[in-house]
Amino acid sequence: MKTIISEEMILDDLIKTFQRLFDLNVLESTPVKRGWLNLKWKITTDSGQFLLKQYNEERYKMYKRENLLFAFTQQVRLYNKGIRCPNLLSHNEDILLESDNGERFMAMEFCKGKVISPGKANVHQMYDLGKEIGKMHGLLNDGTLGIKDNPKFIPPCRKERLQHWNSMWEQAKETDKIQLLTYIEVQRKATEDLNIEIFDYLQSGWGHRDLWVDNLLFDNNELTAILDFDRLNYDYPQLDVARAVMSCALDDNFDVSLASAFIEGYSEECNVSKGYLTNALQLLWYMESTWWTNAYMDQHSLPPARFAKEMIWLAENQKNLSDLLENI
To answer: Residue 302 CB: number of other CB atoms within 10 A?
Structure first.
């Protein structure tokens, strides 16, 4: 039988290891309740504040170790180039550490700032966020990392995607989840209407790939940090743009002024052509809609429910996105 280890036992193990590796005395610890499965604590030492991040065993299985280590090295490079993100501590050049009891964890600078609620950004925050993401994309795609043959996301053909929605429809119907049929139908209809050829002209490149409100910190009108680079990979930088805009600008309605402020800041660092945001949002929807909109979405916890809301809005508004964003 597998021994159940409490959070308190994990924290005690991590603190003991941290103190031994970095010769720092931990005075206080506070849990940071954010993220899925991985545990985090803010710790105060006699030399400042840090964050400890434990990698849950089940969550860790979802990653390739070499991909994580690559992401960590890029985060350090971005930090050294002035991007607002946490600096990562290393011991004997290792960033991904192992505790005395075998827990995988990392230690990093603690960044001040607050997480905003979805859709609750202001125009100043969006401008600053857009500008910083533009800088980040510029550095990630400055030639240092080269290019890959294929991006992480390969858009499936329309036929395959329609088969998926038909399957979801049948599953919802068979389980008497009549209330979900409308949401699934709007995804199917949007798939039929999509001009899928636009994906042939997208520019692939390196990106963060997880830019939603939980991974952004703000202090008043300024961005203070971009967090959690674990998913950094070669994909489409436009996905970062769309993910950040949807997460920060969609409340009960989509705030075009917030999207415009983001693109204004972003375009100061990266080239943005006409229709850039429209295409980015369509790509985000095509990638993520099957993740969050399904026959089991009535069981979603809060973050997946939020993502499902975004996918439903994008499907419902796909045909008028160009008109809605024509002045951006």
So the answer is: 8
Alpha carbon separation from 89 to 18, 98, 102, 197, 232 (Å, rounded): 10, 13, 18, 44, 19
The pLDDT tens digits for 87-132 are 999 999 999 999 999 999 999 999 999 999 999 999 999 999 999 9
Helix (H, G, I), strand (E, B) or coil at 152: coil
- Residue 319 is classified by DSSP as G
Rounded Cα distance between 245 and 233, Å, is 20
The 10 Å Cβ neighbour count of residue 114 is: 11
| Alpha-helix residue ranges (DSSP H) falling in the chain | 7-22, 57-60, 65-80, 123-140, 158-174, 178-193, 237-249, 256-267, 276-292, 302-316, 321-324
Distance, in Å, from the CA atom of 85 to the CA atom of 173, rounded to the nearest integer, reads 46
**Beta strands at 39-45 and 205-207: parallel, antiparallel or unpaired:** unpaired
Which pLDDT band holds residue 1 (cuts at 50, 70, 90)? very low
Q: What is the mean pLDDT of residues 308-315?
A: 96
Give yes or no for a contact between 273 and 237, defined as CB atoms under 8 angstroms apart. no
Helix (H, G, I), strand (E, B) or coil at 235: strand
pLDDT at 2 > cutoff 70: no
Residue in 36, 31, 244 with CA at minimum distance from that of residue 129: 244
Question: H or E stretch including 105?
Answer: strand 104-109
Closest CA to 268 of 122, 138, 143, 78: 138
CB 265 within 8 A of CB 131: yes
Alpha-carbon span 72 to 86, nearest angstrom: 11
Give the pTM: 0.94
